[in-house]
Write a structure and sequence with these properties.
- It is a single chain.
- This protein is of the alpha+beta class.
- It is built from 4 helices and 6 strands.
- It has a 4-stranded antiparallel β-sheet with strand order 4-5-3-6, covered by helices on one side.
- A hairpin with a 3-residue loop joins strand 4 and strand 5.
- Helix 1 packs antiparallel against helix 2.
- The chain is elongated.
- The two termini are 16 Å apart.
Length: 141
Amino acid sequence: ILREGVNVRGLTTAASLWITAGLGLAAGSGLYLYGGFAMALTLVTLTILNRIEPYAALQRSWGSGVIRALDEPGVLGRIGGVFGAHGINISGLQMTSDHEEMVLEMDLKFPKRLSIADVVEEIERLEPVISVKIEKEHPER
């Protein structure tokens, strides 16, 4: 089970390991009927959930972004506010500044049905922002 900020990954794998251990205990104890029932229930549950998962509203995809802006107080907060309003999580941030201009490089997680063009347009409207580039990455990440 891995935790990335407020997100948790690997729960299905961990649960599958526990159920496998339980099935092994049931078989080793001679409780074949209960073990068989638990195995069938597990397979049905995992199969159904695997088919439903792509349609879940919480499904997210990865992306990256680079934003150039004037180095003024509150800029980072306003950009973060736009991301938050659209349900985008910033999972990694690197900021460089030369006292006049700053460059923000970000790893992003956003809802799959989000229009990235709308987010880019909204960030570009912020007064100190010079340029915005946000891209989706491969879903295997």
